[in-house]
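This week, think about what follows.
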Amino acid sequence: MYKESVKSKMTIYLDNAATSFPKPRSVYEAINNFLQAIGGNPGRADHQRSRKAFAVISQARRAIARLCTINDPSRIIFTFNGTLALNMALKGVLKSGDHVITSSFEHNSVNRPLHKLSLQGVEVSRITCDPRSGLDLKELTHTIKKNTKMIALTHSSNVLGTILPIAETGTIARDQGIIFLVDGAQTLGKRLLNVETMKIDLLACPGHKGLFGPQGTGFLFIREGIDLETIFEGGTGSQSESREQPDFFPDRFEGGTLNGPGIAGLGAGVEFILQEGQENIIHKEKALSTQLWEGLAKINEVTLYGPEPSLPRTSVVSFSIPGLHCENIGFMLDQVYNIEVRSGLHCSPGAHQCIGTFPEGTVRVSPGYYNTAEDINAVIKAVGDIAYRKL
């Protein structure tokens, strides 16, 4: 029987790797303004509401371009989440007979499309990653074949925080004439990412995590020169007399009405990052995750996974307590201590197979920019109580 909550009714949210919360005030204001003051369908008419909507979406494109050092904002395709962006990239490139290299750290937003493609004749090689150091570049090089069409990697594990060598992989891929797709879900907004210096051909990202946008937003960057087939078509407001999808960017890949309110919020989130400074965000989240790791490491019953704070990593921290199911730990943190984390496999079964926590999973704590040192202390105290059965 659990005792009553030892905390106040104020909830501590520590599931930012799933979706960031809260958002900057400017994000809420931008969404409300679009809904209440603009309301038009972008690119579908010449009236002022349509023009204003188009201007908001164009501004969001430019903000993302500045964040990622993208020279041509029109190469940024807005999607409804990161999963759609990844599906567009994978299925728009890979055909029967092609070979793709990926990693054991991938999210199911990559794993499942690749599984579907493998049933259609695409050959998939999956490199097992080290939980602390990530991807072995020598093994990557040795895995390349004559028919290797793409390398698809997450920038960072959403389970362990391990950062993969994206820049080095980009160089290898470019030298070999291989298309390089990066899943930036766990790093964009939280780590510096430059598509030019990292030689990224395709960058997929949701808007609702490190970019502080609302759910239902995301984007896919397509480098000039990359031949990508569409996986859906529809109205764009341009070349309406033709049955063919327009062949220019971004209309070729943006059939149907965009999520105007969501993109307005996403643009505001990216502008917040640019104004606040990524370095400041990185510094704060690193301090919080280091505090969390070091505090949990002092609890003998806790097992920690992934790189130590001295190694390159994001702010997610995964742990387990022998003898307690991770789902029960998450439930107790929520119900007794009002602390919200995520337990289970985190849609990344391969990462858990790497660390021996499959099929149960781990407890994942993911601090964000709006968390405090007091929040982290509360988590450490609560986990200690649970580990020592002080409930």
In short: Confidence is low (pLDDT under 50) at residues 1-8. The two ends are 8 Å apart (CA to CA). The first helix runs from residue 25 to 38.
